[in-house]
């Protein structure tokens, strides 16, 4: 009896774990399909490369037949790599890429993407190539959270601001590259973005805007200080004038009194002599 109970419990454990695995695979499959559907809908495809991206097929592994899509297994809808290089695609960076929950590589280089790079890129990426597009703005600092990143390029865009600081990088002396663990990100990965700065590029200079703000702050502070000085001066000026007038009047009275005393004394002396 006890043996039978243990057998039932073991079978229940096996069933539970199997169910969870199936559920996880199902959820991963659904999110990966949604990820690819969102990419197709968000990008303009003038050369019709997405023609093969037909979502009417529901068989397991059907997305693995899409142009530019590689799966972990050919019979499983889990995206491993997306390579959409030099397809003339237009639009903004597809933000729903984060829904490809198992993706490790993304290559959108050589297209006509515009706008900014989003900060919520998949943390699993080993490869991220966005070079030769028309992306603008800053490289989001969150890129440094891509712990597995080994290949990274944003060359030949319109980006500006500081290069992300990776926590586990090393910069060898007199080197034009960043070493991330066993991987190297050379200066060429940031080339031809005139607004970018910081290692492995030239050091960042103080922003002109910050300098202007500092100057404005100094000017405003100086004006406020001068106004206070003027107010204090005008507030005290009447008092000073009154004090000066009183002092002047007292001096006149003292002089007049002195003259009167001198005259009176001379008169007394003359009377005595008489």
UniProtKB/TrEMBL annotation:
This is Leucine-rich repeat-containing N-terminal plant-type domain-containing protein. The lineage of its organism: Eukaryota, Viridiplantae, Streptophyta, Embryophyta, Tracheophyta. GO terms for cellular component: membrane. InterPro entries: Leu-rich_rpt, LRR_dom_sf, LRR_N_plant-typ, PRK1-6/SRF4-like. Pfam families: LRR_1, LRRNT_2. Residues 31-72 form the Leucine-rich repeat-containing N-terminal plant-type domain. Its main location: membrane. Gene3D superfamilies: Ribonuclease Inhibitor (3.80.10.10). The chain crosses the membrane at residues 211-234. The keyword Glycoprotein applies. SUPFAM superfamilies: L domain-like. The keyword Transmembrane helix applies. It is found in: Membrane. Residues 1-28 form the signal peptide. Keywords: Glycoprotein, Leucine-rich repeat, Membrane, Repeat, Signal, Transmembrane, Transmembrane helix.
């Amino acid at each position: 009896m006890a043996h039978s109970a243990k057998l039932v419990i073991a079978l229940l454990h096996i069933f539970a774990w199997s169910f969870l695995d199936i559920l996880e695979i199902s959820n991963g499959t659904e999110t990966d399909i949604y990820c690819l559907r969102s990419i197709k809908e968000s990008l303009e495809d003038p050369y019709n490369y997405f023609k093969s991206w037909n979502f009417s097929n529901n068989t397991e592994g059907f997305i693995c037949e899409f142009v530019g899509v590689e799966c972990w297994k050919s019979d499983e809808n889990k995206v491993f790599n997306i390579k959409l290089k030099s397809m003339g695609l237009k639009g903004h960076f597809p933000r729903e890429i984060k829904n490809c929950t198992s993706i490790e590589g993304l290559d959108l280089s050589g297209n006509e993407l515009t706008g900014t790079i989003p900060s919520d890129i998949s943390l699993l990426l080993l490869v991220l190539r966005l070079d030769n597009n028309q992306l603008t703005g800053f490289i989001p600092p969150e890129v440094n959270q891509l712990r597995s990143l080994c290949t990274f390029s944003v060359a030949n865009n319109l980006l500006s601001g500081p290069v992300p600081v990776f926590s586990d990088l090393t910069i060898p002396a007199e080197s034009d590259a960043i070493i991330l663990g066993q991987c190297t990100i050379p200066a060429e990965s940031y080339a031809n973005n005139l607004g970018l700065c910081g290692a492995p590029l030239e050091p960042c200079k103080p922003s002109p805007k910050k300098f202007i703000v500092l100057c404005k702050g100094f000017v405003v502070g100086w004006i406020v200080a001068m106004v206070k000085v003027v107010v204090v001066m005008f507030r005290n000026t009447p008092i000073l004038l009154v004090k000066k007038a009183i002092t002047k009047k007292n001096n006149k009275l003292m002089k007049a009194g002195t003259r009167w005393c001198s005259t009176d004394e001379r008169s007394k002396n003359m009377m005595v002599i008489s």
